[in-house]
Amino acid sequence: MTSDTTSRMPCYFISHGGPTVLLTKESDDHKFFKQWGGKILNQDKPKAIVIISAHWETIDGIKVGKFEGETPIIYDFGGFSEELYRQEYHGKGSPELADKIVDILKKAKFNVTVDTTRGFDHGVWIPLKIAIPEPGDLPIVQVSLKRHASYEHHIKVGRALASLRNEGVLIIGSGMMVHNLRDSFGYFDRSKMTFSGEILPYTTRFVRDMDKILFESNAEEREKQLIKLIDHPVLKQAHPTDDHLVPLHVATGAAGQDPAEKIFDLCVAGMSSGSVEFCARG
């Protein structure tokens, strides 16, 4: 992977939703992932994917998944249709890329090691199975989040990874724009396997303010405002825990000066599936 023959990749923040999105093929979010996958394969054409999911947090530093062949998947959810537990995803790893990520992050003064046992969680394989159902020889490497780290830490991780974009590597942060499951359970229709009903006021407020930060600010101000979210009036309602928010900080750090564009938006109850592409225009 060299920058001489490869154009700079965009990077993304996607709201991966729940596992049932895989089965609800007529839902708007399933259709979005299909369309997004078409863009990745036909327009972006990455040489590899690096993905940071809300569902892999580590305490003792950052971990990088390192697999020679196919990476296993984890069914890290419960109480759903048996069909979900029969699903497979055949994504291969890249030891070379994993080692390179470790080197990059070490040079940026992060505590980082490889992990050779943990498979892809549903924040990785569920959206990618819809978007890229047959990844073939396209390597996919997952990088963990450091639990309880600051918002600035996650932005700096993204900045360190940004150089990979010049080598054909697509960087994806996978979380949710708003993620309050507790407040949303009452809006889940099991017969349709989807959430439906009203949008809670804090969801509307948080999405509105995130739109201003992401789409109306320059890159420097965008990062500053994302760090200041720690003091946002409805943060603890929109994100009782920040695991689904900080993949956005990583993606924003990797974006550098590139502007952001909303590529999907769906709100219900205490959830928002807002998704963003960061890419230089022109």
From TrEMBL:
Gene3D superfamilies: LigB-like. InterPro entries: Extradiol_dOase_DODA (IPR014436), Xdiol_dOase_suB (IPR004183). Residues 11-263 form the Extradiol ring-cleavage dioxygenase class III enzyme subunit B domain. CDD domains: 45_DOPA_Dioxygenase. Its cofactor is Zn(2+). Keywords: Metal-binding, Oxidoreductase, Zinc. It comes from the Eukaryota. SUPFAM superfamilies: LigB-like. Signal peptide: none annotated. GO terms for molecular function: ferrous iron binding; oxidoreductase activity, acting on single donors with incorporation of molecular oxygen, incorporation of two atoms of oxygen; zinc ion binding. Belongs to the DODA-type extradiol aromatic ring-opening dioxygenase family. This is 20162_t:CDS:1.
